[in-house]
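User: hey, got a sec? need S-formylglutathione hydrolase folded
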Amino acid sequence: MSSELTLEQSTKSFDGYQYVYSHDSYTVDCNMKFGIYVPSIADKECVPLLIFLSGLTCTEQNFITKSGVQRLASKYGFIVANPDTSPRNCNIEGENDQWNFGEGAGYYIDATEGKWSENYQMFSYINDEFYELILSNFNVDIDRIGILGHSMGGHGALISFFKRPSQYKSVSALAPICNVTKCEWTRNAFMKFLGQDENLWKEYDACELVNSYSGPIPYAPILIDQGSDDKYKEDYLFPNVFLDACTKASFPIHLREQIGYDHSYYFIMTFLEDHFKYHKNEFEHSD
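Assistant: Yep! Here you go:
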């Protein structure tokens, strides 16, 4: 099953085009938008794909307007696709009451509880429908697909990699929420989306998933960047808990503390090229 795409925006940038498309999603049962940068080389041959997952309160616009990704996607010859962070305009009571829950805050999980379960199926949307939509409509090298994200999106990238190892060659993250069962934001959301059984929550916790991961090991340790002055680091993101979990699981990780940086897009744009380099290196060592 494949959705028909509607072109919403087409803007020349560097040697390619920044597009925004919309489509009627059968997974989350609403109209969804996504951004995608396509370099000119993709007109001639299959190229690597990076999927970027954004953080709380974001739409598809934040990343494409604030990060400078177009220059990097052009330079490295990658298609870069970035979906929205949640379903939109579903008219569910309470979905706009909190900044960190509901619209703009889908947490990339599949809800099981009541009124949320029909629309808030973001894990399946990202890793099934959206994934196949990009492969079906753009010139992607299926053996060179990576995923990365920021904050809530970093959480989404990590769990997608651990739960779908056959789909992603590489993963990295910027200031990800690493331990969702401890984070106040996610505990509030998971209680509503998944109910009170915390064993179900663990199925979407990177610190838990790395312990049971049995897929391919990346060529180089996965890259995680974390700003030292990020006000969310200690109480919401828990990078060191994830580092400990990876160490215990003998899973390779490179956690870099970036001195003086906070949680903003200034942090993202500063280190984003390092993540392109990281994924390029992983792609070059594809089997």
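Quick note: DSSP finds ten helices and nine strands in the chain. Let me know if you need anything else on S-formylglutathione hydrolase.
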